[in-house]
What does this fold into?
Amino acid sequence: MIRSQLAHRASRTLALFLGMLVATTAFTVLTGAADTSRLVVRGEVAKDFRAAYDILVRPAGSKSALETSQGLVRDSYLSGAFGGITMAQYEQVEGLDGVEVAAPAAIVGYAMQNVTIPVDLSKYVLSSGRQVLRVDVARLVDSGLSRVPGERTVFVYVTDEPLAAPPAIPGDVFGPTETLPGGKRVVLCPWDGVEAGTEAARSGPFSDFARTETSCWSRGGQGFVNGQTVASTHSKVTVEIPWSFPYLIAAIDPEAEARLVGLDKAVTEGRYLKPSEPVSEIQRQGAPSRLKVKQVPLLLTSRPFATGADVLTVSDLGAAGVAAMTSGRQPAYLRGALLQERGRPLGRETVGTAQAFSRLPGVAEPGAVPADEPLPIADLWTAGAPALTATGERAVAVAPVSLDPSVWDFSGSGAQFRPLAETLDTPFRTVTHHEGNNSGKVTDPTFKIPVINIVGRYDPEKVTSGSDLASVPLSFYAPSRLKGADSAATTALKGGSLDTNGSMVGYAQEPPLMLTSLEGMAAFHARDAFSDMGKAAQAPLGSIRVRVSGAVGIDDLSRERVRRVAEQITATTGLDVDIVIGSSPTPVQVDLPAGKYGRPDLKLQEGWVLEGVGVALLQAVDRKSVALFALILVVCSLFVANAAGAAVRSRRTELGVLSCLGWSRGMLFRVVLGELAVLGLAAGAAGALLSWPIAALAGLEVSPWRQIAAIPAAVLLAVVAGLGPARRAAAAHPGSAVRPMVSVPKRPRSPRTLRGLAWGNLTRVPGRAALGALSLAIGVCALTVLLSITRVFHGAAVGTLLGDAITLQVRGVDYLAVGATIALGALATADVLYLNVRERSGEFAALRAMGWPEAALARVVVWEGLAIGVIGAVVGAVLGVGLTGWFASAVPPQLLVMAGVAGMVGVAVTVAALAIPTVALRRLPTAALLADEE
It folds into this structure.
């Protein structure tokens, strides 16, 4: 009987087989896809789970409320980490069981180094005659958004006549002289002062080194730049532009840094710092024989991260400028007379940070003091952390601070060390000035303040920082990048970032330019060397980066080992501890107020570190895999049950006849269930074979065992799904099975519209209408839950570099699951609507015979389908919202939006599925159906 039924009802058998085949193939492929996505996530997390270190230790109380509440660690914090951890605490951490490397870091402070950059102005010089060039220097910083005008004005005087050097014993007015036509001798480029080269000589109203400079040149003869005689040729006239570097000095343990990040492998010139390298004492040039200086070994970075440029605007002051310069008047008059002359613009020159950085002292020969010995570090400055206020989730605002002008006391360093633009723009960090003790005596064993000894240079890009997806705070070697967080900031920055500008008080900070050893740090903390350094000497370290011994992976045992080490550090030292293993960078919005010189208000994105991202991703993908597996199983089961039920309903008359002929309920039950089992076996075998090429095309891996298991799973799925329809077929009364079951309404009404007729038809067959709505509701509910699961997973993933990378890889699997769910729902809906037309074919034939046009009949079907679609969409969306909390363990804020989207997709699927019943309606044989009704 089973064989004959399958053979003689080929169309229905084929439809049921195709439905089971789709369900079996979808189940096999999508469960394989869920496993694939899970393996992808676990593999990606495992690869990027461990960064340069596992635990970050900071001074007690240094972790901000924002970091604590949102599980964040600020990346660029080092410049404000001025001490707080004692050497004894560091030794305790280093000695704990399970600690492989403990790398301490200390911020010593900012020091000043001045360099001069020669700029060739020869192309602006006339071939003959006297000429005065005015050079206005403006500073461009903040990625070109801030322009500080008029920071320095330089005057260049050029003549054909020879210039005489200043006298050995200057008078009230000092400078080179020129004999003018008529024999008058005048002082050019004059200073007020009593001795050449002294501070007094450089502090006159005309020659303030930091504000206004002059140089005089004789074509083919000598030149005089700020009192210094230089050689000159006819083709080269230069001006010296001073550049002040506030460079940050930090102290490290060379051996620990080599083991942790491979700093020793990043050295490009000279040598690496030796372990426990002491400070050497040498005889300083020109110092008394008994007075030595402490020479601190330092590693200098190979390039600066700060950006900025001086823009030189060159103008010719013409006859008025020459007349003023050669008037022989006092410096006060000359400065005012020359500054009021704007002249004729000739062109612009640019001097950048890289040019200035290249003129810093080079690597010294071993055991020797370089010829261009740097000045002692006469003063130090330490800058605090910026004042941040949380404005939302992963969003902060930066507040300006007020500074006491006395912090910019450069008396110990000399006026030439004054950092340009440092005190002019809006400050965001507090600054403390530590004045150096420059009062050396013959009886002192060593000079109080040290000098720098650059033993090598290193390239910070060669430092091993690990994967970018698992980056941890490494501000010693890379600055924090600040990109635009909205369209206005992105446009202002021209798609780039707000770079550091070398300022002590700016928000964006540059990494340390110089690194010394812990022993070198002691020279700065020596008694009486620098003022107010007592606190730093007692607790000099700002952070300790800890690497746990042994292999550390994503397994629970590894994570527990790291947690126990962190717990021991806290219990032993009382310091703040962050477990950064499994962390990843995440953007935090920073609202930066406008500056005084053109920089607008900016909304920026700064890369902080979000703790525990790796573990959250693993937990999220595990929940997602279980939910997808359950969802796919439910959808496939209901689809097969709906198809089996449709097959039973289409055979109601036949089953009623068999019952009248004496077939028992058990025989009817076994026939229906046997047909489904045979079809399930065939569909399972075909689905197992078909799943392999589909998975290959989708880039998924389906194991052979999963393909083989699909066959018995398909049989079991068909049998379980067909139990209900088989029981209904066996329990049907012979008389009621011969005719379709139609309910008689309690209050019959005559419909006046096609919509009323459609609704009346649905109320006459409530079971059939409910089945259609339920079939669609299944798809809408599944789609709502699936979108919610995907959203929850993506919510746990996105927002960090690691999560974004993983989401891009597994999102295709999610879309595949959504597409398969929609396809199953569409097939189920189309099946129900098609059977509605087939079962009511007699009614449609009668209406057609009464003269109803085809368009009216089609609209009735369309209205019935839309009613089923709307009811199913609403019910499915409501069920999906309710089930989301159970499947995903969370209710995303956008859940109602996703439910609405799923509902609209359900209605759209219903509209598309209406093509099948409307085509079937047109093909109904009216005459044959009317004859059957007779």
